[in-house]
From TrEMBL:
Keywords from the named record: Fatty acid biosynthesis, Fatty acid metabolism, Isomerase, Lipid biosynthesis, Lipid metabolism, Membrane, Prostaglandin biosynthesis, Prostaglandin metabolism, Transmembrane, Transmembrane helix
Entry keyword Lipid biosynthesis: yes
Record-level GO cellular component terms: endomembrane system
Protein's UniProt name: Prostaglandin E synthase 2
Residue ranges constituting the GST N-terminal domain according to the UniProt record: 94-170
Length: 323
């Protein structure tokens, strides 16, 4: 999970990698949250919209987006010498720019790849309400990566394209172990995160406290996002539990962590002596939740901590260019 923030345009806003069904769930929960917050939900919503300078329908759609996969935490910078240098001089570029939400797990997947391969990149934090930073693009989700002006979208596709540019003579097996676990990350692991980070009201507030202090929000948006967003996502997480047949949130998270450790088969990494794309994908997705209560519980109650620490050390310092 650090990454993603805000409230009023959260419905369509936090399309971090794309999850339209979940966004509809968030919308429904937010509308019910507004309804229960006032005896006259229309007046309450309209006042909120007026305060933020938005139309009421835009507000109700908005609260949904940033939350779904907005998972939070900070990543530690480690020794740079452990990082993987760029593998091909054929991959030449002048500027790499990542448009992101800080807590979005899919954005963190891309950053894990860029950091490990020591590809310097700039960050543009997108406001999930206005999305003004990506008005230029027909694609209205994050992550978006621009390499010398060329747009790349969808985290897995971005990583696949970058991999082939760095390794023009290599290919990822279509049916191999590496691809299998990359797909497992997108199809399973990410779905157990939201029910865990919003499992209780206190955990929901913890998550949004991080989210609202690390994203691109105005002061008013930050206040609304923290409390209304946490309340909405608490209820949404219950619907996500049902959708993905999760009976116990923590048990599902622990099982996923143990499943990954079993896949390592006593290797340092799934890739053997060094991380492969699956290692980077799992690490990137988990990084936003690592220092939340859910992530701390995961490390305490499963065997994943040793591998995770190894990945922190191997990943090295962020390749992000500070401006």
């Amino acid at each position: 999970m650090r990454r993603a923030n805000g409230l009023p345009t959260l419905g369509r806003a936090l399309s971090c990698g794309g999850a339209s069904t979940e966004q509809r769930l968030v919308q429904a929960a937010l509308i019910s949250t507004f309804s229960s917050s006032s005896s006259n939900s229309h007046i309450f919503s309209q006042k909120l919209a007026d305060r933020l300078g938005l139309s009421r329908p835009s507000l109700e759609r908005g609260v949904a987006g940033t939350m779904l996969f907005s998972v939070a935490a900070s990543s530690l910078a480690q020794d740079a010498h452990a990082k993987e240098p760029p593998r091909s001089k054929k991959f030449l570029y002048n500027e790499v720019v990542l448009y992101q939400y800080e807590a979005c797990p899919f954005c963190n997947k891309v950053k894990a790849f860029l950091d490990y391969n020591n590809i310097p990149y700039k960050i543009v934090e997108v406001n999930p309400i206005s999305k003004k930073e990506i008005k230029w693009s027909d694609y209205k989700k994050v992550p978006i990566l621009k390499v010398d002006g060329e747009q790349m979208v969808d985290s897995s596709d971005i990583i696949d394209k970058l991999f082939h540019r760095i390794n023009p003579d290599s290919s990822i097996p279509d049916d191999g172990e590496e691809k299998k676990w990359c797909q497992w990350v997108d199809n399973h692991l990410v779905h157990v995160l939201s029910p865990n980070i919003y499992r209780t009201t206190s955990e929901a507030l913890e998550s949004f406290d991080y989210i609202t202090t690390h994203g691109n929000f105005s002061f008013t948006e930050r206040l609304v996002a923290k409390y209304a967003g946490a309340a909405a996502m608490y209820f949404v997480s219950k619907k996500l539990k049902k959708k993905y047949n999760i009976t116990d949130e923590r048990a599902a998270l622990y099982e996923a962590a143990e499943t990954w450790v079993d896949a390592l088969k006593d290797r340092h990494y799934l890739g053997g002596s060094k991380p492969n794309l699956a290692d980077l994908a799992v690490f990137g997705v988990l990084r936003p939740i690592r220092y939340l209560k859910s992530g701390k519980d995961m490390v305490e109650h499963t065997r994943i901590g040793e591998w995770y620490t190894r990945m922190e050390n191997t990943g090295g310092e962020s390749a992000r260019i500070k401006e």
